[in-house]
Predict the 3D structure of the following.
Amino acid sequence: MSELPAPGVDPAIERALFDRIHREMVDSFDEELEMELEDGALSEEQQPKNADEEAAHKHFRSFYFRELFRLQGELVKMQEWVVATGHKLVILFEGRDAAGKGGSIKRITQRLNPRVCRVAALPAPNNRERTQWYFQRYAAHLPAAGEIVCFDRSWYNRAGVERVMGFCTEEEYQEFFRSVPEFEKMLIRSGIQLVKYWFSITDDEQEFRFECRVNDPLKQWKLSPMDLESRRRWEEYTVAKEIMLARTHIPEAPWWIVHGVDKKRARLNCIHHLLSQVPYQPVPHQPIVIPPREHHPDYRRKPNPPEMLVPEIY
């Protein structure tokens, strides 16, 4: 791996790589836990080799946590507006493996009502689905009024993995490009707002993230044989991506590219941009009053049967 130092390399480089791997690992936790772990680790560290760099990192971490929570508050307001107005919103997340799509989706949906905002992450089509109209299985997941759907990969699989891996014919591939602009225009005419994101990372960054997954038992499930093969075919995916963006970047549903090498900045940029695309307004709320509980003199709570109790190991 190009990121790993050779034997006998400068200890400062080894330290920098260790710090980077540590931050990659911690980044997979929820922000509240990440703050606790990182703050504890920083307080116990020896004097950093590069105090200015460490101070800059710590400053941005603090900003990231504050800004993410603020943006998530705006996402809650957007959700309330979507429900109140019956808006229908579809967000597509595309990009190479390990580009940061899942992490951004997680932060977008983290504070939202799962009955309002859901994630569609479809597996490979089964034998029956392969004989359907190509868009049919995706159409089944489109939102009704007052709903948000985040597609973790989408119908653009045909222009990416299916093209590169040979899972579709040349005729099917060309028909996709003829059909997809009309399909998306049809969605928009039906009242669905469609926002499309491509997460862009570098060759070296993808290799680093793959290495982290290989060495992390909690993330190894993210690496499929298809992911590993896609790594080998980096250049073929690049060509397929460039063709896809050129042929499906339409005024009604343009592509938006998120620079994803820095995960935290990518998340903030994506959420900030998403909020700018939805014309949400604050929704008036009636004051919430918790009613007093009724008390009945003949009520007696029955004890739980001991055999039904979960053992209190902790």
